[in-house]
Amino acid sequence: MKVAVIGANGQLGSDVYRAFQDNGDEAVALNHDAFEVSDLEAVDSVMHDVMPDLVVNTSAMHNVEACEEDPSKSFAVNGIGARNLAQVSNGVGFTLMHISTDYVFDGAKQAPYVEADFPIPLNVYGNTKLSGELFVRTIANKYFVLRVSGLYGMNLCRAKGGHNFVTLMLKLAKERDEVRVVDDEILTPTYTEDIAHQIVHLTQCTDYGLYHVTAQESCSWYEFAGKIFEFTNASIHLSKADPGEFPAKVPRPKYSVLENKALHSVGLDIMPHWSIGLQRYLEVIKGEAW
Ligand SMILES: NC(=O)c1ccc[n+]([C@@H]2O[C@H](COP(=O)([O-])OP(=O)(O)OC[C@H]3O[C@@H](n4cnc5c(N)ncnc54)[C@H](OP(=O)(O)O)[C@@H]3O)[C@@H](O)[C@H]2O)c1
């Protein structure tokens, strides 16, 4: 199968690219210099050149603060970009696998969200990602929309740069005696390599639709930091931040746990517990980050 990965040098895209290569597929990297996803003509031209069977779209404008400051650009990339791919997918005949987010929910449910739950985004990023989902679902003939959450991987997130949460905690453990972390935001941190393997596995089926794809179970950022320090034997003192100690500039869901209900129902859920993914990731970065 010929698979084009949009954003193949990104945090998730790099693992997806590698996973398809390891699976024996022909993987084609389409980085930002190949085209601008919000430009329909460019998308159409590149896809007619490549003629893929499957396109995995990991591109997004996903710096939450930047999206809030420039809603038009955010909609152009996250909404119109997805629409362009959906439209072109029908002409070229490829299956579109589009990556979305847990931030389509407001967190009020306080129990794991399933695919049938009604999304109510709290910010521009969530709204524009939701519009992208809807364009794909209403236009593309063959599509998977995958909502993922709390990513960390070998390639750092290009939009956020610097560190992911794991490498940041490891850095702080080297520099400080104490760190304070919020305990009132609950999510499922997920290793990008696990999502990449799940994506390859899911392409066995043609049960197109909307899927939640996160590691199993959930934790707060405080609990996640605790596991990072436990697994690396870090001797830093971890304490819970007071409510409001780290005020967010843009509203975000306090609870964004997703249940992989659709994956489970097609019998293809191979996502591990979040702590297993973390353990594997820490083994991979051992010697470099700790
Ligand atoms: N990071 C998270 O914790 C998280 C959580 C939930 C959902 N997600 C979703 O997961 C997906 C992947 O995230 P990630 O962390 O892997 O992101 P990333 O590391 O920033 O990678 C995104 C890739 O897309 C490219 N790109 C950005 N804008 C583009 C555009 N307008 N046209 C073409 N290419 C463009 C980027 O290239 P340049 O860097 O060169 O622009 C980069 O290669 C996104 O859809 C995001 O919404 C992420």
How would you concisely characterize the structure shown here?
The protein has 290 residues and is of the alpha/beta class. The protein is 40% helix and 16% strand.
Question: Within the largest sheet, what's the order of strands?
Answer: 2-1-3-4-5-10
The CATH topology corresponds to: Rossmann fold
The overall average pLDDT, rounded, is: 96
Radius of gyration, in Å, reads 19 Å
Q: What's the CATH C level?
A: Alpha Beta
Structural class by secondary-structure content: alpha/beta
Tertiary shape: globular
CATH superfamily: NAD(P)-binding Rossmann-like Domain
| Alpha carbon gap, first and last residue | 38 Å
Highlighted features:
16% strand, Rossmann fold, 40% helix, six-stranded parallel sheet, 10 helices, single chain, alpha/beta, two-stranded parallel ribbon, binds NADP nicotinamide-adenine-dinucleotide phosphate, globular, 290 residues
Write structural notes for this entry:
By secondary structure, the chain is of the alpha/beta class. It has a single domain (2-156, 190-217, 253-272), classed as Rossmann fold, CATH 3.40.50.720. It has 10 helices and 12 strands. It has helices at residues 11-22, 40-50, 64-69, 71-92, 124-139, 165-175, 192-202, 221-231, 261-265, 274-285; strands at 2-6, 26-30, 54-57, 95-101, 143-148, 151-152, 178-181, 186-187, 190-191, 209-212, 219-220, 237-240. The strands form 4 sheets. A 6-stranded parallel beta sheet has the order 2-1-3-4-5-10, sandwiched between helices. It has a two-stranded parallel ribbon with strand order 6-9. The N and C termini lie far apart (38 Å). The mean pLDDT is 96.
